[in-house]
Structures are given as structure tokens and as C-alpha cells.
Amino acid sequence: MNTFDIPFRLLISLVIGAVVGLERETHHKSTDKRKVSIGLRSFSLISTLGTMAGFLYVGNLPLFIFISTSFGLLVVAYYIVQSMLTKDIGITTEIGMIFTFLMGILIGTDIFPMQLILAIVVVLVMVLSRKEEIQNIIMGIDREEIHAFVSYALIALVILPFLPNTPVSLANVPGAVSFFKAYGIDMQRFASFELINPFRLWFIVALITGIDMAGYALERMIGKKHGRLVASIVGGFISSTSTTQSLALESKSGRGINKLVAAALFANLTSFLQVFFLLAPLNGEFLVRSTLTLGSMIVTALGLGLFFFTRHERPEKVKHTEKKLIKESEIFALGPALRFAVIFILIRLFSKIALSIFGSTGLYITSIIASFTGIDAVLIIVAELAGKTVSFQTALITLILVNATNLLSKSFFSYLQGSKAFALRFFLSVLAIILASSIGLFI
Questions:
Q1: Distance separating alpha carbons of residues 138 and 134, to the nearest angstrom
Q2: Cα distance between residue 400 and residue 367, in whole Å
Q3: Residue 396: how many CA atoms within 13 Å on its side-chain side?
């Protein structure tokens, strides 16, 4: 550290302490309406003291320990006296003092880059200044949501890292081939087919449930505060099928049909965006090859959604309150995640068998049938096969067919559950999206 670097670090430390102290001082003035015992000047001195202690860390360790210990005892004494005088046992200011001293040490020792230290200080000031907002967020969190977060953390952070990333085929199952042979079934041809890879299977479960969790978080932050349209967009991340059916049921009132169709199209548009998040970590090259197709679907759905949203209709006589489109019980549950895993394994196995026996036609038929249960599992399998077992062109055709089948099934359910006007407009929009998705096959 050169001679000119020391004054610069002391200046930075002084500014950092002043910023934190200013936040504390303005906070106490706005809440307690009394004279503050510690503020801008005190925090400036604390950060500068930390920086000077940091300078001594290498050359004079005993003095560094003495200064740090003395400061710690001073903070404890300050907390005891203040809590006795004010009857306030909160330790936010004291923690801020320790944090500011630590930042000063980091500046003096040059352990962390200066950019990282400044970023940490900005986050600290933001957390200190957002007390009311943070309390409101905490008050709005239910125990079920905490349980859902912990359950997802268990799946993604505790179980996943310890699962073996090794494929298991029929040949690895003791006696499996001999068992089928005893009944006259020759399974030797399919013995090398992968049945399960514990790590990849659980990674997919974590990915799907993670997207669902993110969608629910967006709904909590945005959907409840705004109208049906935003709630539908967020609901599309969780379940575009459920959202579309809910909107179809609402269309039976005969009012605001265009707005409901627009909401349904935007819900499905977000499901198209969700495909990007599914394909990106699984097969980046296939995602690139599918970009034109997915982009055409997104642009078409966006254009049609805006078209119906801006069309004028008779004003609604009945005031509609916001309708919750997704049940809170669907935040996260291990049962559906495990069922998805079982469905994924079966679809994957049957797809490979059909591909081996019937070629690309077998993959098309199997994928179309499977898409009635949802497109996530099918798209994941297609992404795994693309560029390896099947060509990218075959995988792209499968993606288009699966998406078309899924959209048409939503149209059929809309016809059964909603008004005819809603079903017709949604069906025509679906046809336009399907036609737009085929553009990628010819370019």
C-alpha cells in the first residue's frame, strides 16, 4: 500500500461512516422525535477507527486486537446504558456500529475489493432505511409460505447436491432382462435405455418447482395489487391451463369478453417465456434453434392480446373485484413434484421406445399424447434428445406439435366451461399462434 493510498482509504471510510450515520440520525429524528446520542459524526469516527485498525493488522497485531476488543466492549456498554434509559431492547443501531467498524477494517486491510465494500455498504443502508417496508412484508408472509420455501430449499439445496449423477438402465437392474425373457419378451434391444438419472431427474423437479415458486412470489407482489390482467400474466407462470379455465368460467357473465380473452392470451404468453427458462439449462443449442419459433409465438400472442385488450366493449354494470386465479395451496407441495417425476420417467421411457421402433413418427405420437397432461415434461425430454438421439429439426417439429396440441386442448376446455364468444375468439387466436410457430420450419 503506497503513501498516497492511505489518505484515499481514510477519506472513503469517513464518507461511508457518514452515510450510515446520516441514515441512523434521520431515522431516529423521524420516529423518536428526540436528540440522538449517536449519528453522523459518531459513525464517521467508527469507520475511520476501523480503517486505522486495519492498517495495524499486518504490522502490529496486538494493537489491532486491543482496538477491536475495546470497541466491542464500548458497543456493549452503549447498548446496556441505552436500553436502560429508553426501555428499547432493539440492537439495530449497535449492529450497524459493528458493521461500520468491520467495513473500515476491510478498507484498511484490502482483503475485499473496494467495489464490493461499497456495494455491501449500499445494501446495509438500504436495509436500515426500509424498516417499515420490511416489517410490512414480514407481516404479509403466512406460515404456509415459509413452509413452502423451506420445502423447496430442502429439495434444491439439501437433497440435490448429494444425488449421484449416474444413469441407470434396464441392464443395471439385476435380473430384469431375464425376467422379461422368461415370459417370452426380448428386452435386450432396450436394455441400454436410460431409465433414470437421480441427479438430473431431481434437478428437473427443482427447476419446475422453482419456476412455480417464482411465479407465486410474483403473484404475491404484483397480482394482488393490480387487476385481472396482471394477475393472469403472473398466473401463467404457475399454470396457464388453470388460468385460462378460470377466465373461461368468468366469461359466462357475458361482460368484458375481449378483456378476458386478452388476459388468457397473456397468461399463455408467459408460459411461452417459461419454455426459455426450461430449455436454457438443458440444451442451449436447441434453444437457439427454437428461438425463431418461440419468438413468433410470443410476438403473435402479444399482438393478439393487445388487440383484444384495446377493443372497446359495453361498460360493465357490475363492479368486478379481483379474482384470485391460483389457489394458495398450490405454492409448493412434494406430492405433485413426485408425480411429475413419475410422469417424466414414463414419458421419457415410452418416447425412447417409440422412437426406437417407429422412428420420428413414434416420438411425435407419444409426445402429442403426453402433452395432454402438460408440456413441461415433454419439452424437457425433447431438449435432452435434440442433437443427440434425434435431429434438431425433428425436435423442433415435436415442440410445435406439442404446443399446438396443448393450446387446442385449452380451446376445447374453454368451449366446455366458458361462453361461446370467449371460446371462439380464443380458438381463432390459438390458430394464429400455431401458424406463427411453424415459421421456424421454413427459415
A1: 6
A2: 11
A3: 21
Q: Are residues 128 and 169 in the same domain?
A: no
* 84 CB-contact burial (10 Å; exposed 0-12 / middle 13-18 / buried 19+): exposed
Cell reading at 307: 388487440
State the pLDDT confidence band at 326, using cuts at 50, 70 and 90: very low
Domain range for 106 is 5-139
Which residue type occupies 101? F
Phi, psi of 230 (to 5 degrees): -65, -40
Final residue belonging to a domain, choices 124, 139, 154: 139
The answer on 246 and 124 residing in a single domain is: no
CA angle 170-175-176, nearest 5°? 35
Count of domains for the chain: 2
Residues 99 and 204 in one domain: no
Q: Are residues 188 and 103 in the same domain?
A: no
Q: What mean pLDDT do residues 390-410 have?
A: 88
20/128 Cα distance (integer angstroms)? 9
Lookup: cell for 112: 475485499
62 is written with which cell numbers?
496486538
Mind listing the pLDDT tens digit for each residue in 32-91?
555 556 778 888 899 999 989 988 887 888 888 898 899 989 888 888 887 777 776 777
Shared-domain flag, residues 235 and 250: yes
Residue 150: count of CB within 10 angstroms of its CB: 12
Tell how strand 194-196 and strand 168-169 pair up: antiparallel
Query: How far apart are alpha carbons 122 and 108 in whole angstroms?
Result: 18
Same domain, 348 and 420: yes
Q: Which of 139, 159, 193 is a domain's end point?
A: 139
Closest among 49, 25, 52 to 39, alpha carbons compared: 25
- Global confidence as pTM: 0.53
Of 200 and 49, the structure prediction assigns the larger pLDDT to 49
Q: How far apart (Å, rounded) are the C-alpha atoms in residues 151 and 143?
A: 12
- Cα gap 36→78, rounded to integer Å: 13
